[in-house]
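Incident log, support desk, overnight shift.

02:14 A customer reports that sequence design results differ from what the structure should imply. Their input is reproduced verbatim below. On-call engineer (initials T.W.) acknowledged and began investigating.
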């Protein structure tokens, strides 16, 4: 059961039928049954615009997936944890140990660690962070462009986490249970 009626790609029309609409995480592992974010064109179009802008940014794709796993864990989004664990391992070629560590905002690379810590701090403190958080990221070599993209990825990931939680997206794939729910 979902919180929204699923979008059936074969019968979708208008902006809802645009490539990628109705897919909370872009091409998802279970894209044959897209959930309700395609019912209204605004959310998927906004997602696609932000995702497109961030995908051509300075952060590499593996960092995108690690940031997404950190945020999904923070928000308790089972589906997004599954999706980013799957995409991280199979598309971004991230080691399983690194994906697991990202759930705790941990990384073996100091720069990535600083970016995950910054993102997690912003999320947990609802954006109310002092200068120490970005200063620590800069101290690890992060640029202002990277810090800005961390905020963009956090916004994108919160959007998909909240939407998938609210939509009660069915997850018939291997479950990755958020630790807050365990």
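02:41 Re-run completed on a clean worker. Output:
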């Amino acid at each position: 059961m979902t919180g929204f009626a699923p979008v059936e790609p074969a019968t979708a029309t208008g902006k809802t039928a645009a490539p990628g609409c109705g897919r909370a995480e872009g091409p998802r592992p279970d894209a044959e049954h897209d959930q309700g974010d395609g019912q209204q064109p605004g959310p998927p179009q906004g997602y696609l615009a932000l995702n497109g802008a961030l995908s051509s940014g300075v952060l590499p794709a593996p960092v995108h997936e690690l940031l997404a796993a950190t945020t999904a864990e923070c928000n308790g989004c089972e589906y997004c944890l599954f999706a980013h664990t799957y995409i991280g391992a199979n598309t971004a070629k991230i080691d399983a140990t690194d994906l697991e560590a990202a759930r705790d905002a941990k990384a073996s690379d100091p720069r990535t660690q600083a970016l995950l810590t910054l993102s997690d701090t912003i999320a947990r403190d609802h954006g109310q962070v002092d200068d120490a958080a970005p200063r620590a990221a800069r101290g690890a070599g992060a640029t202002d462009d990277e810090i800005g993209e961390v905020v963009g990825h956090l916004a994108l990931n919160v959007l998909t986490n909240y939407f998938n939680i609210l939509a009660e997206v069915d997850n018939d794939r291997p479950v990755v249970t958020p630790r807050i729910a365990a």
